[in-house]
Amino acid sequence: MNIIETIPQMQEVRKTLPEPVGFVPTMGYLHEGHISLVRKAKEENASVIVSIFVNPTQFGHNEDFEKYPRDMEGDIELLEEEGVDAVFAPEADEIYPKDFSSRVEVIGITQKLEGNCRPGHFRGVTTVVNKLFNIVGPDRAYFGQKDAQQAIVINKMVKDLNMNVDVVTCPTIREEDGLAMSSRNVYLKPEDRQSATVLYRSLMLANDLYEQGERNAETIREEMVRLIKTEELARIDYVSVADPLTLDELNEIQGKALVSLAVKIYKTRLIDNVILG
Ligand code: AMP
User: What atom in ligand 1 is closest to the CA of residue 24?
Assistant: First the structure.
């Protein structure tokens, strides 16, 4: 497996890899969620490239960039076991040299939900993903449904800008008790861990209500909020029942609905979602 830190080296290795090339962008500290994307990419492509880059521009000033968990050695071992062809793990100044002055931005859908809580976040994501696509030149790129809005934004960027990449969105991988796997789960103290299942429990409540015929989005939001508030450690950022394309909040569910939420469990901010319909 090639472990690559510079852009020219990545471009050279790319030329030698059999096509089609699948690409899995990550911020590292890999878990089964990431590995599920790698396996899907392996199934569908002749070569697989994984990037590990904790992208500073997608973190707000008061967010966890500095303490974001990192384990390059462990990650490389896991990716080697999966038969990945190349790992691209650049330093920040390789991606953002001193004179860097460009931005890629999707407007509208990036102002809602996560974008509303984390201003500038998606501009950081689309800029770095665009750069990574240009550097790696993948035929297909793999993203997790766990970050539903991110997948929607990337799809929109690729469509709007006619990028020659197929975006594949893969299902959310969960712990046995339903907690969505996330690198940030390592922040959860033992006393937070049980409370953290409230995100999944509230999504399952939404799903049950929908299955029982409830189509009023506000009723579903209210019931979710009521359940989450039973957890003392939980603080809600948002609970949303929205159109999966526009991310506009729904009144009545007619087609599909993206039910998503962001909740702080003590100091750890977690997100999760399900699709209804
Ligand atoms: P991250 O390292 O958190 O930026 O995630 C890299 C990719 O893995 C993103 O496309 C995420 O949506 C995806 N991912 C993260 N957690 C999960 C999960 N539990 N299940 C499926 N995909 C995931």
Answer: 7
